[in-house]
Amino acid sequence: MSPTRFLRRAALRSCAAAVAGVLLLSACGDGGDDDAKAKAASDTTRQITDAQGREVKVPSAPKKVVALSEPTLDASLALGVEPVGATAGRGQRDMSTYLKDKAGTAQVVATVAEADMEKLAALRPDLILLDETTGAKRTVDKLQEIAPTVVTAKLNEDWKKAFTDTADALNKKSAAQKWLKDFDARITDTKKKLGDNAGKSVSVIRWQDGAPSVVGKGDGVVASTLKALGMTRPADQRGASAGHSEPVSLEKLDTIDGDWLFFGTLGDKADGEKAYAGARKATNFGRLKAERDQHVVVIEGSAWNSAGGPLSADVVLNGLRAALAT
């Protein structure tokens, strides 16, 4: 082969390689930039200060979140984050019934009392969220050895602040603020439609083991929503709560009475209906004004009895609106 022909072929091969390279880069560029940006975000971290004053480096775009409390699970789901690990609902073996359908394939790795460290670690999370409503708050140092751990709220924290602080840990604070703006607009609209029910007294109780317990006192989701709507509470349901719930003896059944009585259990509405059927057989239950006026409303108790969060607040508002708004 002559030197001229050899050089010509070499030049052609070089051009072909260059064209192929350009095409390859072009193909990679079709969505490749977005993939690169997503990977870059998942590989970067942000530093935040949690509710305990701890400085924690968290992923900018967490992919495998574990939520060890009802409020952090509730908030994550409200923001479109489906955790890989979650907590069981209060008094339940599985997630709270009002959250379970939204939680997808999340595995239960904790209860209100404690977290199962072995199950949690097996999920290989990149972010762990909890607050002081759960016993896992005592094991933050051990949790931190598994993944960055953020305590989002103190005990009895205002639920809206707890929500936005959880959102901050997830790098979704603006989405939380929009959610709250929409919620407040619905509060305003509902209040305008209360009609004759404006300012009426509302009792909220959980029926368990044949007797009631008062729930929703203090500044949680139930009390704050009722207050925002301008509703009142029976005398024994005002002020801060001594605990998550306060048992009431059947001898003092009249203390739970109100213009309206919202009635539930720790389970779903169907469980509440069964409990209501039993409560109606209790001595003096039929004498309650709310019962006589057919103003007893059976509720999705798992949401009304939860430690709070945006989705539980939504359930509470929807229940009040359906019963009271005209």
UniProtKB/TrEMBL annotation:
<keyword id="KW-0732">Signal</keyword>
<protein>
    <submittedName>
        <fullName>ABC transporter substrate-binding protein</fullName>
    </submittedName>
</protein>
<feature type="domain" description="Fe/B12 periplasmic-binding">
    <location>
        <begin position="64"/>
        <end position="326"/>
    </location>
</feature>
<dbReference type="InterPro" id="IPR051313">
    <property type="entry name" value="Bact_iron-sidero_bind"/>
</dbReference>
<dbReference type="GO" id="GO:0030288">
    <property type="term" value="C:outer membrane-bounded periplasmic space"/>
</dbReference>
<dbReference type="InterPro" id="IPR002491">
    <property type="entry name" value="ABC_transptr_periplasmic_BD"/>
</dbReference>
<comment type="similarity">
    <text>Belongs to the bacterial solute-binding protein 8 family.</text>
</comment>
<dbReference type="Pfam" id="PF01497">
    <property type="entry name" value="Peripla_BP_2"/>
</dbReference>
<dbReference type="InterPro" id="IPR006311">
    <property type="entry name" value="TAT_signal"/>
</dbReference>
<feature type="signal peptide">
    <location>
        <begin position="1"/>
        <end position="31"/>
    </location>
</feature>
<dbReference type="GO" id="GO:1901678">
    <property type="term" value="P:iron coordination entity transport"/>
</dbReference>
<keyword id="KW-0813">Transport</keyword>
